[in-house]
Design a protein that fits this description.
Chain A: Residues 227-360 form the Arsenosugar biosynthesis radical SAM protein ArsS-like C-terminal domain. The complex is a heterodimer of chains A (362) and B (111). Chain A is of the alpha/beta class and 362 residues long. Helices cover 37% and strands 10% of the residues of chain A. Chain A is globular. Chain B has helices spanning 17-20, 22-35, 43-56, 60-72, 77-96, 99-109. The chains are: A alpha/beta (362), B mainly alpha (111). Chains A and B meet through helix 11 of A and helix 4 of B.
């Protein structure tokens, strides 16, 4: 790989694929890549055929446990691996009207977990109102996926740790590595230092402390074209390093595999790693992970109210295969009777110990 | 036969050696897998040892595999390079310590 390609990727990463009019901003183009090449040539089996070998096709949902709502693609960061293609230039954010529809669902759902994500969900102007209203519904586990740096990005966000605490929000934050170099390479210059400060602020109000009910979990995803290793070993290394270097405490580490879509797909192709990465995913295929893959217990809602089997399918614009496709028509029983929409990116969630928004599954 | 003795794609075929001798191949891979499990040494420490040895035996497949393995385990490039130096130091030391043999021989033959 030429150095110039690497430089191009680095420069390009300051804007979303969409703002750059990159061909991969077109979800159909991504699907063509995922369905073509190695898979069309018969070098690697289609995901559908792979799960059929163990009688797991069609993939069906089990009991709904997690309602994941994406309140918008706007973000203060432009991470190289972002499957949402989020960034400051993304203007798609959930309106209060759509939030009202979501609240109606939150009040009546059988799911025990509500999971707000983005972009940086805090950048939605109605975020705090939404959290206040949603927290009244009494859902057992209320997650907000915070990128940490947002807490320091502007004065108006400085009190977020207190706000999260007030509403007993479970904070889940990305942290690709416990060293500055690796973190900044993936997430942008200065992100590591700000993330450390933000974690310290969360610790100060009680988040992540041993025996504290204020849950603070970190998400690790590899900063490159390789799969995550054993989650518990990584957690041990993260805990040791963050405690020793910065006095930081947190509860659990979720190891998440990067799926070959959006900006990570762009990176894989530009760095000539796409084929090897797909081989690695298929080789690490684990039928036991298919049993527990997150789309079997999750519904993902987009900023404009459409329903998906997961956040990745949302970014590929693969809506649920159900009569109910939008939050305004939400019906859990009807939705639960669907077949899950799959493609080759799904190998990302079934590799090794599996991968989900809550970490490994198998 | 390929144009080159080493083909990166061959690494993926390593498991195929079992096809021509199932018993020995299986025994080898069972042993190999067991060696790298968590034990008195962590899997992380063993990955670094493997990386150092990979360089000493100059095995391109092993360097490929254990650089990736190290990345997967969150091992930093500084740690990896120190491991490579540890291997290189032993290898060069192994050469140099033979200098004593040369000195012994020289002294024995000299008046």
């Amino acid at each position: 790989m030429g150095q110039s390609i690497l430089t191009d990727i680095k420069n390009a990463a300051k804007k979303s694929l969409k703002a750059r009019h990159n061909e991969l901003a077109d979800t159909q183009r991504q699907m063509d890549i995922l369905n073509g090449g190695l898979f069309a040539d018969g070098e690697l089996p289609y995901f559908k055929d792979k799960i059929a070998q163990t009688g797991q096709f069609p993939l069906k949902p089990k009991k709904l446990e997690v309602l994941q709502i994406n309140v918008g693609y706007m973000c203060n960061q432009v991470c190289e691996h972002c499957h949402v293609d989020a960034g400051p230039d993304r203007k798609e954010i959930m309106t209060r009207d759509t939030m009202e529809l979501c609240l109606e669902v939150i009040r009546n759902t059988g799911a025990h977990t509500l999971d707000l994500t983005g972009g940086a969900p805090e950048m939605n102007p109605d975020f705090r109102w939404f959290v206040e209203e949603a927290s009244k519904a009494g859902i057992k586990d209320f997650i907000v996926r915070s990128n940490l740096t947002i807490i320091l990005a502007n004065k108006k966000y400085h009190d977020l740790p207190e706000f999260f605490k007030k509403h007993n929000v479970h904070v889940v934050s990305s942290m690709p590595h416990y060293t500055k170099g690796k973190t900044d390479k993936q997430r942008g210059d200065g992100v590591f230092d700000k993330s450390i400060q933000a974690l310290q602020k969360l610790n100060e109000v009680g988040y992540g402390m041993p025996d504290s009910d204020l849950r603070l979990d970190l998400v690790y995803n590899p900063s490159g074209a390789f799969l995550p290793s054993d989650q518990s070993a990584m957690e041990r290394d993260f805990k040791k390093a963050l405690k020793a270097d910065f006095g930081i405490e947190f509860h659990n580490l979720f190891a998440i595999t990067n799926l070959p879509i959006s900006r990570f797909l762009d990176y894989l192709i530009a760095s000539d790693n796409y084929e090897d990465y797909m081989y690695a995913l298929v080789e690490a295929y684990n039928p036991a992970a298919v049993e527990k893959v997150m789309c079997t217990n999750t519904i993902s809602v987009s900023w404009d109210g459409w329903l998906y089997d997961c956040d990745f399918n949302q970014m590929l614009d693969l809506k649920v295969a159900s009569k109910v496709k939008h939050i305004k028509d939400y019906n859990e029983d009807v939705l639960n009777d669907r077949n899950i929409v799959i493609s080759q990116h799904c190998y990302g969630c079934t590799a090794g110990a599996g991968s989900s928004c809550q970490g490994t599954v198998a | 036969m390929a144009d080159s003795y080493y083909d990166p794609a061959d690494l993926r075929k390593f498991g195929n050696i079992t096809e021509w001798s199932e018993e020995l191949g299986t025994k080898f891979f069972d042993y190999y897998g067991k060696v790298f499990e968590e034990g008195a040494l962590s899997a992380r420490e063993k990955s670094l040892i493997a990386l150092a040895v990979a360089h000493v035996v100059k095995c391109p497949y092993c360097i490929d595999a254990y650089t990736k393995d190290g990345l997967q385990r969150g091992i930093t490039k500084e740690e990896m390079m120190e491991a490579v130096h540890a291997g290189a130091a032993i290898e060069s030391g192994a050469t140099l310590v033979h200098g004593v043999m040369m000195m012994n021989k020289y002294n024995k033959l000299s008046m």
